Amino acid sequence: TPQPGVPPEEAGAAVAAESSTGTWTTVWTDGLTSLDRYKGRCYNIEPVAGEENQYICYVAYPLDLFEEGSVTNMFTSIVGNVFGFKALRALRLEDLRIPTAYTKTFQGPPHGIQVERDKLNKYGRPLL
């Protein structure tokens, strides 16, 4: 939900930038690499049916943005700073799709998933 006066396209683009390469200050290292290779992109915006000024924004991130095998890095990038973003009144992560190529970089639990499920007594659902 964007703040009053902020167009949904601007809010979506700001979320994509803030959760990838965007920053509110000048960083001297910005000139060392091409930010286009790493920036997130808001590629679709749909209004929420029956809700005024609420939108679903679809954001895609290049795999090069994330450290291989690091769930922490991925989640920090996607949801780190952006939930306190001033251009938005509200923000909620609805869905996250991780490409198979990236999931293959995760080593997984050292003793196997069944041992972890047994320790936690959690079955039939994702462990996050």
Automatic annotation (TrEMBL):
It holds the Pfam family RuBisCO_large_N. It is an enzyme of class 4 (lyase). GO terms for molecular function: monooxygenase activity; ribulose-bisphosphate carboxylase activity. It is found in: Plastid, Chloroplast. Keywords: Calvin cycle, Carbon dioxide fixation, Chloroplast, Lyase, Monooxygenase, Oxidoreductase, Photorespiration, Photosynthesis, Plastid. One of its GO terms (cellular component) is chloroplast. InterPro entries: RuBisCO, RuBisCO_lsu_fd_N, RuBisCO_lsu_N_sf. Residues 1-102 form the Ribulose bisphosphate carboxylase large subunit ferrodoxin-like N-terminal domain. It catalyses: D-ribulose 1,5-bisphosphate + O2 = 2-phosphoglycolate + (2R)-3-phosphoglycerate + 2 H(+); 2 (2R)-3-phosphoglycerate + 2 H(+) = D-ribulose 1,5-bisphosphate + CO2 + H2O. GO terms for biological process: photorespiration; reductive pentose-phosphate cycle. Its EC number is 4.1.1.39. Belongs to the RuBisCO large chain family. Type I subfamily. This is Ribulose bisphosphate carboxylase large chain. It comes from Dracontomelon lenticulatum. The lineage of its organism: Eukaryota, Viridiplantae, Streptophyta, Embryophyta, Tracheophyta.
